[in-house]
Amino acid sequence: SKATVSVLYCSRKQPHLKMPETNQWRFIEVGRLVLITKGKYENKVATILDVVDQNRVLIDSPACKDSAVWAGVPRHVASLKDLEPTPVKTEITRGLRVGGLVKALDTQNTIGKWTELTWAKKIMHREARANINDFDRFRVDRARRQRAFCLRKKFAAKLTKAGKDSKAKKAFKA
After folding, report:
1. If you write DSSP's letter for every residue of 90-105 in order, what string do you get?
2. Helix, strand or coil for residue 113?
3. Residue 34: count of CB within 10 angstroms of its CB
4. What is the pLDDT of residues 144-159, one digit of tens each?
């Protein structure tokens, strides 16, 4: 009957439903690097020092050597609504003071791990594009056009070689 079939189906072992070996979750925990998404310190990175309650955490981002991303975020309690956890984590104890935090960040190369992420590179690229002047913007546009011209030229050559001259003329108009 139907009940028997469903019981047999549920009791059958399903190896494809087992838990994954590695954990890709970004838990809110002490030492987790977070990106501030709103407010005065937007696009700055800080480290969680303590979990206050289910909605707030204590964060700090002391100025470390040769890193502009880290400077300027004082120790304060922040809402989790304004933070985005990153995959980078530093092994520290709860409520660590500034000196110990700077030492831990330097020895565990947390800054290097963050700057190597594509996420950080996109943020830095976006900020650099937003802060350029008119002349630099013109140079970037000119370089983009030259790159596109070279690509269209190569594509047209490949089409011509393949015997598709009409498509090559449409792709490349010199």
Report:
1. ----TT--HHHHHHHH
2. helix
3. 23
4. 999 999 998 888 888 8
